[in-house]
UniProtKB/TrEMBL annotation:
Pfam assignment, any one: NosL
PROSITE patterns given in the database record: TAT
UniProt xrefs under InterPro entries: N2O_reductase_NosL, TAT_signal
Protein name: Nitrous oxide reductase accessory protein NosL
Originating species: Natronobacterium haloterrestre (Halobiforma haloterrestris)
Length: 197
């Protein structure tokens, strides 16, 4: 075989490899999106549901990445100061046909969290919430875990930004111990009840 024959074969083989790689990696139109990574929610981002600044309030934070570049007003995820609000919002978006790519929530198994009792009511001083126990907020990117990789303590006496919340733990034993001490049930992502029910 001539040198030209080998060169032509190498060219054709190289083209086939390049085409295969392009198919695996997706095209520039974003048909096959790369996995999402959690972002920091510590830079003044406001919850998409209630408008409160996420890093300024108690409880778990969350973020949801949807297909087709939603939400439309920015690159990146929808973000929340409460897992209960995240679940309620996701239900509504799913009913409108939004497809969830990936979601992340604060993982209390990987952070040094605090339980804090409010003594000022946190509501203008009328004492309505006085004596309630809240869990600290952790909204940096390394504090998040994938929504289906954690278990949630639901119905405990420990509150988040908007009151009763779903508290995520990646360690099943830690979730069970938290529920034993503070009440509530341990549920998976698929079992979470609708906060709107």
């Amino acid at each position: 075989m001539t040198a030209d024959g080998w060169s032509r074969r190498r060219f054709l083989a190289g083209g086939a490899v390049a085409a295969a790689l392009a198919g695996c990696l997706g095209d520039d139109d974003g048909e096959e999106e790369l996995p999402a990574e959690p972002i920091d929610l510590t830079e003044g981002q406001a919850c998409d549901v209630c408008g409160m600044v996420i890093a300024d309030h108690y409880g778990p934070a969350g973020q949801l990445f949807y297909a087709d570049g939603k939400p439309d007003d920015r690159d990146g995820p929808a973000w929340f100061d409460s897992v209960a609000e995240l679940v309620a919002s996701h239900e509504g978006r799913r009913e409108r046909g939004w497809e969830l790519r990936e979601g992340f929530v604060t993982d209390y198994s990987t952070v040094d969290y605090d339980l804090l009792e409010r003594d000022d009511g946190g509501d203008g001083g009328d004492g309505e919430n006085e004596g309630e126990t809240y869990i600290s907020s952790h909204a940096s990117s390394e504090a998040f875990a994938e929504v289906t990789a954690v278990e949630y303590v639901v119905g405990s006496d420990v509150e988040g930004a908007m009151g009763e919340d779903y508290l995520p733990f990646s360690d099943s034993e830690e979730a069970a111990a938290f529920a034993e001490e503070h009440g509530g049930d341990v549920l998976s992502w698929e079992e979470l009840p609708s906060p709107n029910a």
